[in-house]
Amino acid sequence: MLIHRLNEDSIEFTDVEPIEADLLRQIPILCDVHGDSRAESRLFSTPADPSQTQFLTDWEEYVRPELQHIFLSARTTVEKDLEKMEERLGHPSRLVILCSHGEAWLNALNQARLVLANKFEFTDEELSLHEVPRSFSRRDLVLLQINFYAAIQERIIDGLEGCAEGDEKEPE
Amino acid sequence: MAETVAEKETKVEIEAPWNVVVHNDPVNLMSYVTMVFQKVFGYSKQKAQKHMLEVHYNGRSIVWTGVRERAELYVQQLHGYLLLATLEKSD
Fold first, then answer.
1. Does B86 touch chain A if contact means CB atoms closer than 8 Å?
2. Structural domain boundaries, residue B41
3. pLDDT for A94-152, tens place per residue?
4. Would B3 be classed as within a structural domain?
5. How far apart are CA B49 and CA A9, in angstroms?
6. Which of A79, A108, B2, B43 is most buried (CB neighbours < 10 A)?
């Protein structure tokens, strides 16, 4: 898979292999933390020490719903973009996203990585490791998935450099 | 005749500043954190990278100091980007 700037306002994913397409489709699904308290506590981390009672109460009442909206909106954007992926059976796929959707992609990829990291309780050391694992247990594969999403984030960040912001033209 | 003006004493209480602190998190990429600092605070790439490296090596960085209301808003924005940010009273 290659990710690069297509033009002034779009980023293109080319040669997306079926397994990569499948991993991309998992992003919005992974973002759904419903019932996973560990993942939820990371996505909605505490913004101050417990002495800030009023601030924390207001945060829960007003800010948390706003954050939920931001995270859900990012997921939905990615979901809708993925629906437009050009797929031909047995052939690599192609996906074009608007630069203005870049932040939503980064956010959703972060959500997915945070959820996986929390669910499988990866340590800081494991997450910083970029070696090919010796075995391929479920855990090892999830770590590869987290790193795959990180690599996509890096390419999107590169692609966003100098992108025209707020342009809503449909991709080619 | 000269007018007598009573002098009023005005006390202005200066509130202690508040810090916006970002904490290290192994999941957030260095390039992503730099990009977020640039977007939220309007920092140059160099300044954003300086704070990102502080977070990475020291575990935390005070990314902004000032009035509470604005600090709260920054913390909120950083949480929207999934960064571990907290509001702390400045010493």
1. yes
2. 29-89
3. 999 999 999 999 999 999 999 999 988 888 888 877 677 677 888 889 999 999 999 99
4. no
5. 26
6. A108
Mean pLDDT, chain A, as a whole number?
Answer: 89
Q: Do B87 and A55 touch (CB under 8 A)?
A: yes
Predicted ipTM of the assembly: 0.88
How close A169 comes to chain B (CA, Å)? Answer: 22
Please report the pLDDT score of residue A36 as a whole number.
Answer: 83
> What CATH number has the domain bearing residue B84?
3.30.1390.10
Give the Cα separation of A84 and A21 in Å (integer): 12
User: Which residues between 115 and 144 in chain A have a beta carbon less than 8 angstroms from any beta carbon of chain B?
Assistant: 117, 122, 124, 127-128
The tokens for A159 are 């692609």
Quick one: what percent of chain A has pLDDT higher than 70? 92
pLDDT-based confidence at residue B11 (cuts at 50, 70, 90): low
Please tell me the distance from the alpha carbon of residue A19 to that of residue B14, in angstroms, as a whole number: 59
Asked whether residue B66 is assigned to any structural domain, the reply reads: yes
Q: How many domains does chain B have?
A: 1
Single-letter amino acid code for the residue at B24: N
- Of the residues A45, A103, A121, A146, the best mutation for testing chain B's interface (the one with the most B CB atoms within 10 Å of its CB) is A45
Kindly list the distances between the CA atom of residue A136 and the CA atoms of A22, A117, A140, B27, in Å, as whole numbers in the listed order. Answer: 19, 17, 5, 21
